Amino acid sequence: MLPTDSTKTLSFKRCITEGDLVIVYERHDVMKAVQVSEKGVLQNRFGIFKHSDWIGKPFGSKIFSSKGGFVYLLAPTPELWTLVLSHRTQILYIADISFVVMYLEIVPGCVVLESGTGSGSLSTSLARAVAPHGHVYTFDFHEQRAASAREDFEHTGLSSLVTVGVRDIQGEGFPDEFSGRADSVFLDLPQPWLAIPSAAKMLQQDGVLCSFSPCIEQVQRSCETLKSSFTDIRTFEILLNTYEVREGHLPSWQDGDGVLASLKGCKKRQRSTNGQENSRPQTVLARRMGETRGHTGYLTFARLSCIR
Amino acid sequence: MLAYNSEENLSGSQNRRITWDGCSVLLDINDGDRVLFARLTAGSKIKIGDKNCSLQPLIGCPFGSSFQVEVGAGGPFLAPMIPNAEGNGLSEKTDDQTMEECRDNRALVDNNTAQSLTGEDIDGMRRKGATGDEIVQALIANSATFEKKTAFSQEKYRIKKQKKYAPRVLLRRPFARSICEAYFKKHAEKIGFLRVDTLSLLLSLANVTAHSNVLVFDMLDGIVTGSVAERMGGTGYVCNPHCGTTPLPISIVRMFNFSDETCKRILHASLTELQPSTGENSTSDDQLVDECNIKEQQNKDTLSSSAKDMVNMEENSTANMDTDNNVAASPKSAKTVKAGEKAPPETIKHWNENGFSSLIIAAPNLDAWDVAKDLVPLLAYSAPFVIYHQYLQPLATCMHNLQSNKMAINLQVSEPWLREYQVLPSRTHPHMQMSSSGGYLLSGTRISSSDQN
């Protein structure tokens, strides 16, 4: 997924080969991750697609099915991966992920600790941020979930940047070997306050911690615990508004036909396609999407106090 | 100072945790009241209130250290604060928080007679060498109303007096996060009203990572260029394209403590060089070049005037966050490698042949589509792009055009919404004031044009 391997770097010349992970794009909200294999076949509502037709085409190509339907084949990115990965738990989405990476001050070379791993949505972006020489150590107490995450990182080519451990961080804390070595720590745990003392031990001087909690009571309790060894404690909520954009014809109110037509959406569209009676130019209209995520979680950040 | 030089050497110069001579730092004065950039040298000074203090004591200290202004025999100076020994009567008394507050403000009369210490008394104390903390203590002791205040307003009173009589300076590492926040707070117009969460989203959507080749059209004085370079750790390339002969100013880049290796990776090139002269789809490219040439002519005047601005900024750039020019600048210290050199021909050739792996456009005063139509074709197929704008409409139009010209898919206009909370026992609520817009992003993925039908 990441351009650490120069043969896999995106370029005009980079073509799809056997074994590549591709994102099959139908629509902005319908995508699927597929591993390309010579004999593979993808079937969806647009028809049947043979992987063998994909090999040798550049990424970003439009591919037609036997029935004439089409999809696009995209190179995977952490953003696309977040949209297609299998949800084993509630995952973090792009707005929260981006903010966490920036606020934790993660740059190439950093050592980052995370718990729990969950579905690995955040871990993928953390890996991108610490590459090429840093490392993400992520822990989940659920053995099977950790194994699935490990498989995913293998799949996305991130296993050299992410190590998944099975451990109950709330109960046992982070392993001592990381003591004083972490640049940043991320907690997504039901009782983060139990893990905070251990997180403080792991962090380097001036290192930053983030705790993600859906409920304000969790935040309240975490902040109480943070006070003893952290400063600069700040809590945020971040959401994403997305916009729907379309071209429309807004007729003059004196244009009787146009006004009536505008009352019936579909007839209006027919008129505008023959383009004759559009005395007014088409306008591009934008509005916020009708329904949106109203809450994901609270993000609390804190910096290890400078003692010594 | 105490001996701080332990650990380290884990992650190279980009992640140094102790300041050095010539290092760029962010100084947070009185808990965010004022944030300014400075370069630490033996001669640099900072003015806080009416006092000039040397920044010398800050050299060699760990980031995150706090200092308090004290007045000694040799005048005011910055003294390191010992954290946790903060119990100088100034620390918040939060242990009684569970206790229900029973006091209220019914007995308070605002007639300006509550404080019995006069300005002269305070000056007198100062002359006798009282510390800032001692003055604050005295003010509290001589306030007739202090004891009647609620615990919360007692705390407020302490903090207010502390800020005035014992101002504090917190030493921060300049990161994209802190630099963007500092600018957004004081000079949002200089970075086109780009809020830190929007910047973070932009970097994600553009898939910026080590070894990328990122085309960054940055008219925000380098905040985007610097943030992108920060994510690449001295690998790959950041290319700033420009029309005409003058590259755009990127002076904010100097506030990041970039290594020479990272600086070397920030290059500029003109649009004509970047557009392949011959190629598979030559007709459309030729058209683009022609258009660009025309535009070059038209833009000459505007570009050169922005270059003048750059010079003005450069003159006080170490202090350009702070309108009062409080930091005595010691500019152009021993920096050997400068960021933003001209791209060598072989690198341009590499870009021409392979395309860029990401594109970011941040030109809040230009038409988004006008820029995008020339720059999106320079992207490798399936590569992501992100366009920042402080207004929605130009992005909506641009999205529509990209769609109808079949240049990109996965198009989305988004706008992050960020709210900060006050978290205190029984007093948790969102902040009373918030920024209502941090700008808009149009993101998408370039598609291969070869098989369009």
TrEMBL record, chain A:
Coiled coil: none annotated. The keyword Transcription regulation does not apply. SUPFAM superfamilies: S-adenosyl-L-methionine-dependent methyltransferases. GO terms for molecular function: tRNA (adenine(58)-N1)-methyltransferase activity. It is an enzyme of class 2 (transferase). It comes from the Eukaryota. Keywords: Methyltransferase, Nucleus, S-adenosyl-L-methionine, Transferase, tRNA processing. Belongs to the class I-like SAM-binding methyltransferase superfamily. TRM61 family. This is tRNA (adenine(58)-N(1))-methyltransferase. It comes from Salvia divinorum (Maria pastora).
UniProtKB/TrEMBL annotation, chain B:
Residues 317-343, 432-453 are annotated as: Disordered. It is found in: Nucleus. GO terms for biological process: tRNA processing. Keywords: Nucleus, tRNA processing. Belongs to the TRM6/GCD10 family. Substrate-binding subunit of tRNA (adenine-N1-)-methyltransferase, which catalyzes the formation of N1-methyladenine at position 58 (m1A58) in initiator methionyl-tRNA. This is tRNA (adenine(58)-N(1))-methyltransferase non-catalytic subunit TRM6. It comes from Salvia divinorum.
